[in-house]
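Re: the request from the purification team.
They wanted to know what the chain is likely to look like in 3D before they choose a buffer screen. I agreed to run a prediction and write the result into the notebook, where they can find it.
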Amino acid sequence: QMQLVESGGDLVRAGDSLRLSCAASGRLFNLYSVGWFRQAPGEEQREFVAADSTSGSTTYGDSVKGRFTLSRDNLFNMVYLQMNTLKPEDTAVYFCAATKGGVLPGGAGQYDYWGQGTQVTVSS
Protein backbone atom coordinates (compact mmCIF):
# COMPACT_ATOMS: atom_id res chain seq x y z
CA GLN A 1 0.00 0.00 0.00
CA MET A 2 1.08 3.54 -0.64
CA GLN A 3 -0.25 6.74 0.84
CA LEU A 4 0.12 10.12 -0.82
CA VAL A 5 -0.25 13.50 0.85
CA GLU A 6 -0.25 16.72 -1.14
CA SER A 7 0.60 20.15 0.19
CA GLY A 8 1.42 23.62 -1.05
CA GLY A 9 -1.90 24.73 -2.46
CA ASP A 10 -2.71 28.40 -1.96
CA LEU A 11 -4.53 31.48 -3.22
CA VAL A 12 -2.27 33.37 -5.63
CA ARG A 13 -2.54 35.99 -8.33
CA ALA A 14 -2.30 35.46 -12.06
CA GLY A 15 1.35 35.36 -13.11
CA ASP A 16 2.56 34.05 -9.77
CA SER A 17 4.41 30.79 -9.17
CA LEU A 18 3.62 27.99 -6.76
CA ARG A 19 5.20 24.65 -5.91
CA LEU A 20 3.11 21.68 -4.87
CA SER A 21 4.59 18.78 -2.94
CA CYS A 22 3.49 15.17 -2.63
CA ALA A 23 4.88 12.96 0.12
CA ALA A 24 4.66 9.22 -0.51
CA SER A 25 4.85 6.44 2.03
CA GLY A 26 6.02 2.93 1.24
CA ARG A 27 9.12 1.26 -0.10
CA LEU A 28 10.83 1.14 -3.49
CA PHE A 29 9.36 4.44 -4.60
CA ASN A 30 11.60 4.40 -7.65
CA LEU A 31 9.51 1.54 -9.05
CA TYR A 32 6.40 3.74 -9.19
CA SER A 33 5.26 6.11 -11.87
CA VAL A 34 3.80 9.33 -10.50
CA GLY A 35 1.36 11.81 -11.91
CA TRP A 36 -0.43 15.05 -11.19
CA PHE A 37 -4.05 15.62 -12.10
CA ARG A 38 -6.45 18.45 -11.38
CA GLN A 39 -10.18 18.85 -11.05
CA ALA A 40 -11.68 22.26 -11.70
CA PRO A 41 -14.85 23.46 -9.96
CA GLY A 42 -17.93 21.89 -11.50
CA GLU A 43 -15.94 19.41 -13.55
CA GLU A 44 -16.54 15.70 -13.12
CA GLN A 45 -13.32 14.44 -14.65
CA ARG A 46 -9.77 14.98 -13.55
CA GLU A 47 -7.52 16.63 -16.11
CA PHE A 48 -4.07 15.23 -16.75
CA VAL A 49 -1.34 17.68 -15.74
CA ALA A 50 1.95 15.78 -15.72
CA ALA A 51 3.45 12.34 -15.28
CA ASP A 52 6.83 10.78 -14.67
CA SER A 53 6.92 7.20 -15.86
CA THR A 54 9.34 4.50 -14.81
CA SER A 55 9.95 4.09 -18.54
CA GLY A 56 11.98 7.30 -18.32
CA SER A 57 9.59 9.80 -19.87
CA THR A 58 8.09 12.90 -18.31
CA THR A 59 5.02 14.23 -20.08
CA TYR A 60 2.69 17.20 -19.66
CA GLY A 61 -0.81 18.14 -20.55
CA ASP A 62 -1.16 20.64 -23.38
CA SER A 63 -2.56 23.37 -21.14
CA VAL A 64 0.49 23.39 -18.84
CA LYS A 65 3.38 22.67 -21.20
CA GLY A 66 6.17 25.18 -20.80
CA ARG A 67 4.77 26.48 -17.51
CA PHE A 68 4.71 23.46 -15.15
CA THR A 69 7.56 21.12 -14.24
CA LEU A 70 7.31 17.78 -12.46
CA SER A 71 10.26 16.55 -10.44
CA ARG A 72 10.78 13.78 -7.95
CA ASP A 73 13.21 12.82 -5.21
CA ASN A 74 13.22 9.04 -4.83
CA LEU A 75 15.53 9.20 -1.82
CA PHE A 76 12.93 11.08 0.19
CA ASN A 77 9.80 9.73 -1.57
CA MET A 78 8.76 13.19 -2.75
CA VAL A 79 7.15 14.48 -5.92
CA TYR A 80 6.92 18.16 -6.81
CA LEU A 81 5.00 20.25 -9.29
CA GLN A 82 6.52 23.64 -10.00
CA MET A 83 3.87 25.89 -11.49
CA ASN A 84 4.88 29.15 -13.14
CA THR A 85 2.93 31.90 -14.85
CA LEU A 86 -0.28 30.74 -13.25
CA LYS A 87 -3.58 31.62 -14.88
CA PRO A 88 -7.11 31.78 -13.44
CA GLU A 89 -7.97 28.68 -15.47
CA ASP A 90 -5.39 26.76 -13.43
CA THR A 91 -7.73 27.02 -10.46
CA ALA A 92 -8.50 23.47 -9.33
CA VAL A 93 -7.89 20.81 -6.74
CA TYR A 94 -4.59 19.18 -7.59
CA PHE A 95 -4.09 15.47 -6.96
CA CYS A 96 -0.95 13.39 -6.79
CA ALA A 97 -1.19 9.80 -8.04
CA ALA A 98 1.09 6.78 -8.23
CA THR A 99 1.18 3.30 -9.65
CA LYS A 100 3.75 0.57 -9.96
CA GLY A 101 5.33 0.29 -13.39
CA GLY A 102 5.13 2.50 -16.45
CA VAL A 103 2.29 4.75 -17.56
CA LEU A 104 1.22 6.50 -20.72
CA PRO A 105 0.40 10.23 -20.76
CA GLY A 106 -3.04 10.96 -19.36
CA GLY A 107 -5.33 8.20 -18.21
CA ALA A 108 -6.25 8.65 -14.58
CA GLY A 109 -7.43 5.04 -14.57
CA GLN A 110 -3.83 3.85 -14.79
CA TYR A 111 -3.12 4.93 -11.23
CA ASP A 112 -3.82 2.85 -8.14
CA TYR A 113 -3.01 5.36 -5.40
CA TRP A 114 -4.29 8.90 -4.94
CA GLY A 115 -3.87 11.69 -2.46
CA GLN A 116 -6.67 13.80 -1.03
CA GLY A 117 -5.79 16.84 -3.10
CA THR A 118 -4.69 20.40 -2.45
CA GLN A 119 -6.57 23.52 -3.55
CA VAL A 120 -4.96 26.01 -5.90
CA THR A 121 -6.85 29.21 -6.58
CA VAL A 122 -5.56 31.79 -9.05
CA SER A 123 -7.18 35.21 -9.01
CA SER A 124 -7.17 37.52 -12.01
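For the purification team: The chain is about 0% helix and 50% strand.
Please add any questions underneath this entry.
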